[in-house]
Amino acid sequence: MGSAFEPLAARAPLVPDEADHAAHDLMAAVLSADPARTERTIATLESLDTDRRASGERPTGLVPFAYDLRNATLPSAESYKQASEKLLERDDLEPALRTRLEQTLSDDPLEQADERIHESHVITYGGVFNALAEPASHAATTGYRAAIGIARALVGLVVAWHNSEELTLQERQALVQWHRYLAENPTAPDAAELRERVRDAEAAWNRTQRDRALRAARSALKNDHPELALVAAGRALRFVPEDPDATALAREAGELVEQARADQFRSFAAPAALEPLDSDAAALARALLAPHGDVTGAAQRVLARGGEGPYADEAQYALAIAAGEHGDEDAMWRAMQTLASQDPLRSNMARHAAATTDDPEQNPYDAFAHARTRDRAHQVGWIFLGPLASGPRERDLPRPMEWLIELPSFFDAITSFPNRLVQYPWLSPWPFGREPAAYARSYLAHRPKGEHAEEVRDWLEGYEESRGNWVGALEVAEQGGAGDLATVREKAAAQALESAKKEHNRDFRSALLRRIAREFRDTDAGRDAGTLARKEAEEATPQRIRLSRGFLKENPQVRGPDGLGLRPELVDGDLRNGELHPNGVILAGGRVLEICYLDEKGDESAPPRIVRQQVSAERMARLVAILEETTRQNALSDPDDDVKPDAARDVFFERARLGLLDDPDSRAGASSAYAFLSMRERYGLVRGRESILPVDLVIQGSFPDIGLGAFPRIRMPKPTPDAVLYR
Q1: What's the pTM value of the predicted model, to 2 decimals?
Q2: pLDDT by residue (tens digit) across 631-667?
Q3: Rg for the chain, CA atoms, rounded
Q4: 383 lies in the same domain as 526
Q5: Kind and range of the H or E run holding 191
Q6: Got the DSSP string for 536-586?
Q7: Domain carrying residue 315
Q8: Is residue 96 part of a domain?
Q9: Tens of pLDDT along 544-593?
Q10: In a domain, 170, yes or no
Q11: What does each C-alpha distance from 56 to 39, 60, 92, 418, 610 come to in angstroms?
Q12: Rounded to an integer, what distance in angstroms lies between the CA atom of residue 148 and that of residue 410?
């Protein structure tokens, strides 16, 4: 088979015709700010198009662009807007020009502000309708349950109103557009009225930020963080000075901070004179400081004088530490807990023992045991109560009122108990056990040969297996777990291989495959990883930018003589003269293209037959230029036909336009795997479209009561791309 490309057509010098001269005169008139000459030139272009239509020729298509160019020189934004609206009434505008004009007009600050205000009203009132429509639709089939649903919806609306912000997100977006309009049109007739609206909106925005700060301050006080509460209350006062709620919170938080600082200062104070240690206490101190001191003997001598004597608590603490150092963990923590249970005002070491016992880093097994207890309670609570297992949702209300609001949900929680009981064994991902697993790993890291190491290791291995983390289970099993090591290795290798296949970075993926092949060489997945790593090394290319066959068919100008120059018979559907595989053509880096052909049987589902061909720098430059121009025009004509951002692709295209592809950049970070696909490949045979109606009809079934209902739902406006900046 010969080359897949036709020879590049030589481009003859262009001879300007009357339309070219008129376009030149138009540009000169616009640049010289000559309105009369501009109008004459546009009239010339219109007469040329009239003559061409009369003779059956194709018009120049320059007239709409001439008017758009003329409009750009108008003295005010309002006049440009009116002229562009009039231009949009023409029926000979190219789709790209029409889309650009529509986008320009939609960027009007006042129109955007009005649209955001309208969206805010739809969300506010539409949310009320949607909340009540669903329970009302079940009134005919569920009776009293519908009444409960309506009551719950009303309570939810009241709570939502209580927690809502005074200035909504859409209103904040409108405020920015009002500011923009006033900055661009300070002397507009409606500027004075708009400034009043801006002042009211800014006051509401300050109150909104005050409310946010007050919620943060209350939460910090509730969680015993007075310093954070003081900062949040101060922030609220900056937005609304002398606010009574913020002032009261700041006063309360300040008193707590001052009290904590006084307690801290008092704890740092030392007595003016220290009493000398007696001989037994001094011996205990020396034993604690010596590298191999007899701590046990010295502590027992102190205790032999009487369990309540001076330094008895210190001796008991030292004995507990010594027991732990000798490997008797249980004896150590029993002694620590005994000390921790004593009255801190009468025992010198009670606070130290309590801090040691309660520290998960120093006492990970106790933290593990308590976490397992909490986790079991959480599992049982979830089975019986579902979402109410952890109590009512936080609504910034008094806790009893939050419980009262959740009362109607108890009925659903009880009736859905069988569903959760059936669902429990198949939960994925497994939501329980994360906290005890963290403490289990900490215990094994600190005490791999501790008294409870085998128990903790067996539990952790079973937990990792239950949630499908075979790599984690293997790590535990290799430390001495009770599972079948060979089986765990096979499953861990297969899981690692699947993860490596999903990695997009070529170098990282290859490194993962080599590591799997090295560490799991005795498994089937390890051998498969070695094969894949070798194949990647042999077939790796600097780029993998793909032009699918569907894309090339959908955009003939890209495959035509002004672009790729692909032979037409490769996409005519006739297998006798060769046919492209659906993979199409791949830009493999440098000036190398991979042409993917169908196999001899013409099976489109089979792997393609790939032929590599190096093309000229001019052909690559033409291809990239027409490809970028086409995709931009398509995106303007059809918003669904957009091009996703890809920095590596754009850099490669820039180098192609400049003729710098003879030195390919082989770094993984410079590689792109972008695919240009046809609209059918993206969306299927029928592309989904949003209904022009403002409502959707929802059909909903209920498993617990075997009910079925249908109700309308107002479609909420989609957030704008910049909405994240206003949250």
Answers
A1: 0.63
A2: 998 888 887 888 999 999 999 999 999 989 988 887 8
A3: 38
A4: yes
A5: helix 191-222
A6: HHHH--S--EEE-HHHHHH-HHHHSTTTT-B-GGGGSS-GGG--EEEEEEE
A7: 279-358
A8: yes
A9: 999 999 999 999 999 998 899 999 999 888 888 889 999 999 999 999 99
A10: no
A11: 26, 12, 16, 76, 46
A12: 11
